[in-house]
Amino acid sequence: MAPGEKIKAKIKKTLPVTGPQAPTIKELMQWYCLNTNTHGCRRIVVSRGRLRRLLWIGFTLTAVALIFWQCALLVFSFYTVSVSIKVHFQKLDFPAVTICNINPYKYSEVRHLLADLEQEARGALKTLYGFSEIKSRKRRGAESWSSAWEGTQPKFLNIIPLLAFDQTERATATDFFTGRKRKVSGSIIHKASKVMHIQESKKVVGFQLCSNDTSDCATYTFSSGVNAIQEWYKLHYMNIMAQVPLEKKINMSYSAEELLVTCFFDGVSCDSRNFTLFHHPMHGNCYTFNNKVNETILSTSMGGSQYGLQVILYVNEEEYNPFLVSSTGAKVIVHQQDEYPFIEDVGTEIETAMATSMGMHLTESFKLGKPYSQCTEDGSDVPVKNIYNAAYSLQICLHSCFQAKMVEVCGCAQFSQPLPPAANYCNYQQHPNWMYCYYQLHRAFVQEELGCQSVCREACSFKEWTLTTSLAQWPSVVSEKWLLPVLTWDKGQQISKKLNKTDLAKLLIFYKDLNQRSIMESPANSIEMLLSNFGGQLGLWMSCSVVCVIEIIEVFFIDIFSIIARRQWQKAKEWWARKKAPPCPEAPPSSLGQDNPTLDMDDDPPTFTSALSLPQAPGAQVPGTPPPRYNTLRLERAFSNQLTDTQAFQRHWLKVCFEQDKAYARAELAPIGRCPATLTAVQDEVYPAAFPVHLLEMD
Amino acid sequence: MKGDKREEQDPSPAQPTQGPMKGDKREEQDPGPAQPTQRPMKGDKRKEQGTDPAPPVPPQPSEEEEALIEFHRSYRELFEFFCNNTTIHGAIRLVCSRHNRMKTAFWAVLWLCTFCMMYWQFGQLFGEYFSYPVSLNINLNSDKLVFPAVTICTLNPYRYTEIKEELEELDRITEQTLFDLYKYNSSGTLAVPARSRRDLGRRGLPHPLLRLPALPPGRRARWAASGMQDNNPQVDRKDWKIGFQLCNQNKSDCFYQTYSSGVDAVREWYRFHYINILARLPDTSRYPGEDTLGNFIFSCRFNQVSCNQANYSHFHHPMYGNCYTFNDKNSSNLWMSSMPGINNGLSVMLRTEQNDFIPLLSTVTGARVMVHGQDEPAFMDDGGFNLRPGIETSISMRKETLERLGGNYGDCTKNGSDVPVENLFRPLKYTQQVCIHSCFQESMVRECGCAYIFYPRPPGVEFCDYRKHDSWGYCYYKLQDAFATDRLGCFTKCRKPCSVTSYQLTAGYSRWPSVTSQDWIFKMLSLQNNYTINNKRNGVAKLNIFFKELKYKTNSESPSVTMVTLLSNLGRQWSLWFGSSVLSVVEMAEFIFDLLVITSVMLLRRFRSRYWSPGRGRRAAWEVASTPASSFPSRFYPHSASPSSSQPDPAPSPASAAPPPAYATLGPCPSLTAKARASASQEP
Question: Where does the chain cross the membrane (chain A) (predicted)?
Fold first, then answer.
């Protein structure tokens, strides 16, 4: 014999696989209900009375339903988080502080680029509003703008003309440069249409942007001329600056020495070397403190304004671009070292001639990612390419997404955001209709039609500094007398004029205290908790356990199917047998299928007891221990009993049945259905032989 | 009933000493082994298997014959049935194993211990649940946000034409008073005629402003007892204070409303009179037509788009002047912010020139802005933010919401309907502030008989005016004192709303317009708004309001112990200590129910057997035979069953004592009884 077969045989011998003993499903159910440890089932069987049984079925099913319901609730609430807030008191890392002048470039430096634009803006002002240039501007202007205006052909107004719309007649507009009326075709997408009646004059100023074929145009009008001019100027400004290389732009903007007059950190003097340059498209050169690569992050050992960053900024109001920016001051933003400073979006303005104190309070948040929430750890799973050289944040994602769409739709990149690879900034030499495209795209973006808002997810952990701002007049009248000359002397190398107090701003950024608040999410439920809650529910309603569940699976999913299969097989066999030899053999399978167990179960106790009564004398039984009453014990025995029974018994029984049937047949009685009756007789023979062994075991 | 059925099968009720169960069983077992047993345990099972083609035994009841509900026929039967089939662990050992005292005691102790442990734990668990603990959840959501409503006020109270004369009179008298008290002559031209009419003026207005000598401490205490308002921290170096007198209806009780600073006193006094004058204003003239938005707001943009006519509404505040609310509930479509940042918010250019209508009422210049929810009233007093002229104020917002659990978990109200204060600001939403103001107004109407002008009045009540209610000032200041010290109970009456949305504002300032751009900006503004601007920064201001981030924090409460977890915990404890389940309790209930039914049936039978004639057919005979055979306790306890009954027929008793072959149900019952009987037979 081959070893494989040997092992196989051994396995077969030691681990015999047999089907369920119960021949019918009903039997199986009954057996299960009687023997299971699950509460309720047994009562269904043992209760007397139909109503009572029905009630017990109802109770049991209710308990099962409750278990399922409660467990479903537990499962659904599994992914909840619990939040813990911790307050640490420790030495805190000072955040990166980025400071910008609101005005991006020194006007004297960029003037040669913007001279034409300025002229045309002034010309537009004159034509639209009929006021002439103010003297101060004239003084600064290289030539009289009005005379230049007469001669040259305006190029900016040709590209995007400023129009005056009559409130009453919508479809026409006056091109103020040519003076003639022109038909406004296409849809008028008003940046203001049903404007509130702010101005008495019925004129509304706006400009028209058209796509390639001038059929599709959008006209943008503004409730206030100030906004119209500024917007118009900004469009052209971006066009011009888009063509200027970065180095040149950096040179045109403020240097660190210019912007920062004095610097103190943690009581120690610092200077421009502690700041890193960061060029922002709309704000020019910005300087970030405490963002040095390859250097340790500075930290403060104490709270309070003494120990924070203290700078005096030089904001030269004279160098301001009159049309691009209308306010004076600086912008400051507090951010993490690897975070991109969105200075134009969330920067805080600082007023000149004022000391601005900003007290910080640090809050750290840690969220749990999938599956608890939609946040992302580092943005790698967000399908938007990060065009910023900084850590992921929601805002970076939104801007990157918009820029990507811009490149995709309009073919060029928007000026105020970084350049994606293989793209150029928009300018109307190369992309004549990009502005129309941009406005359309921006509108779609704001209305969430681009899908950026749904694609971008927030970051899981972030730090935020809550700022409390307070202002004080600075320098005071008495101190200004000595302060200003000293500062002027300090800056002597760069500037020649005497400092004015409206050119200076003082900024203090400090930790209010060194308390750091951490908001941390942690899973509220663990698998152990879930399991133990399941256990609680199972135990509470039915005193059930995992073993019970396995039992149920065994009984309901394995045994039932094997019973069905067996019966089907037997039916088929019977059918086959009947087909082959019609007269006799049809009886046994049918009786075997249905009636054998009934007899087995129903009739064995009386026979058994009667059998028992014979060997057991009453006297012998008295001191003996009662039979074990543990269900489990008996269960197994009952099983093996039945199993051996059914196996050993069937052969025997078949023979008897045949004989009986033959006898019946001889007596001209119907053989079918008689077998069960005769089986009692059979059992009487069989059982006594089969059972005493187990009986001995039990006692 | 089972009994009825049995009756037919029972040919001989001749064994009266036996328990009915036993008798039956033996009777039916006797015919032969081929016949299935009639023992109750067995019988039950057989009924389940009713469809079996049983051996041809005639009295075998099939399923159709099974009664709707069957009861055990004796206590013993019931008791044994219960002992055999109960699923309660431990307890069954105590009740059902009573043959060994040691064992019983042991089980009793064990059972008691576990029982106590379980109930102790249950108590803890229920205590925890019914203390309704909440846990705080902090959610950080990022979402498109609805822009809040923004109310901007001019800080220039408007002078209505109807009360113009009276206000001028008031101004004149004020100037007069200022001159009298401080020798301050505000305008030389006005002072001369004012002085001539001085006596007239002072007579014209009640509650004149007086200079009061500083009081010695003792006297002050007495005054304080009579309700004097002493608003001064001891800062005045002078030995006199300034204030005005307020008296009650019959002048029996008076106090001086005094102030340490003359500025405060004059302003408060002026305000008091101004309120009275305002009260005379007819309802119809609330909105003066000529005061349009254009005179105050030069330009307004949201999200780079100019504001719409439909975006704002207007109201007039007696102290703060014309107020414009942007993006409030009535606006056609609410502004949404899908991007943070200064370019995606509200940007407004304001005219902040002081029109000098009422110099004494508003001493600040600029504008007042307030950010509030769409359906909340704008309490400019409570939550305003002043804008400085000549400055661009950038207000960055951060949204934060707070959700409280109502009901048992905390004291909050969903919509204010269950707060005993009527919301006078309807249809605006309930907030705590709304409630407190309504509450104050309610007390005011109740105590003083008139309504305070700054709050809405309930229907049918008129605003306070000393021409009609001459002592309302006295009443009002008294009430306010009571209100501030919460003697009115407003703060306890007004419950917190369950969900609160708040906006944290941070401001940044920059000079606007810049020196280089101010020329053309001023020119432009003056041209398009048709007013002469004098190139001064003081006349204009700019305001930007935007979301700093679209992240918003939601602080919400959730029950930390829910019903599900409570049940799970109970089940855990129960399983741990007791091993039973709810179904076991139902079993117990069934047992008790059965017990009661059997008791009542037996009582009935006994009653019938005693008072009725016993010869009423077989039924009565059986009843007599079966039931009153032994007393209840004797039947209840197995060993007290009469020993004589077990002795006469030894054959069935071992049969019943034999352990069953296969079925669990069969096992304990016969063995128990057999053993019991055996032990009983040995006792004598």
Answer: 54-79
Q: What mean pLDDT, rounded, does chain A reach? A: 74
Confidence grade of residue B572 (pLDDT, cut at 50, 70, 90): confident
Q: What is the pLDDT of residue A142?
A: 38
Query: Are the beta carbons of B307 and A342 separated by less than 8 Å?
Result: no
Which residues share a beta bridge with A366?
A: A461, A520
pLDDT tier for residue A358 given thresholds of 50, 70 and 90: very high
pLDDT tens sequence across A543-593: 888 888 888 888 888 888 888 888 888 899 999 998 887 655 444 444 444
* Chain A CB contacts of B85 below 8 Å: 42-43, 46
Give tens-digit pLDDT for A78-137: 888 888 888 888 888 899 999 999 888 888 888 888 888 888 888 877 777 666 554 444
Amino acid at the residue A459: A
Q: Rounded to an integer, what distance in angstroms lies between the CA atom of residue B142 and that of residue B139?
A: 10
Residue type, B345: G
Q: Is B575 on the interface with A (CB under 8 A)?
A: yes
Confidence at residue B659, expressed as pLDDT on a 0 to 100 scale = 44
Distance (Å, rounded) from C-alpha B561 to C-alpha B89? 29
- Please, what is the end-to-end C-alpha distance for chain B in angstroms? 37
At residue A363, what is the residue type?
T
Mean pLDDT on A405-415: 87
- CA A424 to CA A414: how far, in whole Å? 9
CA distance A639 to B361: 99
What residues form DSSP beta bridges with A284?
A280
What is the arithmetic mean of pLDDT over A589-599?
Answer: 41
Please tell me whether the overall predicted TM-score, pTM, comes out greater than 0.95 for this model. no
φ/ψ (deg, to 5) at B92: -65, -30
Contact criterion met (CB below 8 Å) for B156 and B373: no
Closest CA to B142 of B626, B549, B587, B417: B549
* pLDDT tens sequence across A146-167: 444 444 555 666 666 676 665 5
- Max mean pLDDT among A366-375, B18-27, B101-110, B291-300 falls in A366-375
Count of residues in chain B: 684
pLDDT in tens, B79-116: 778 777 777 766 666 666 666 777 778 877 887 888 89
Give the DSSP letter of residue B512.
S
Measured at the CA of B501, the angle between CA B542 and CA A451, to 5 degrees, comes to 75
Return the H-helix or E-strand segment holding B41.
helix B40-48
Q: How far is B660 from chain A (nearest CA, A)?
A: 6
* CA nearest to A551, candidates A26, A31, A5, A12: A31
End-to-end CA distance of chain A: 43
Residue A182 pairs in a beta bridge with A173
Q: Say if CB B2 and CB B71 are below 8 A apart.
A: yes
Report d(CA B582, CA B599) in Å as an integer: 26
Q: Which of residues 355-374 of A touch B (CB under 8 A)?
A: 356, 365, 367
Half-sphere exposure of A457 (CA within 13 A, CB side): 17
B contacts of A621 (beta carbons < 8 Å): 654, 657, 674-675, 678
Q: Report how far apart, in Å, the C-alpha atoms of A337 and of each of A295, A334, B349 are.
A: 11, 9, 36
Q: What is the DSSP string of B562-578?
A: -HHHHHHHHHHHHHHHT
* B643 in contact with A, Cβ within 8 Å: no
For chain B, positions 81-100, list CB contacts with chain A under 8 A.
81, 84-85, 87
Tell me what ipTM this predicted complex has.
0.71
Tokens of A667: 């007596």
Domains of chain A in sequence order: 23-80+529-561 (no CATH), 92-106+253-369+460-521 (2.60.470.10), 107-129+155-246 (no CATH), 394-455 (no CATH)
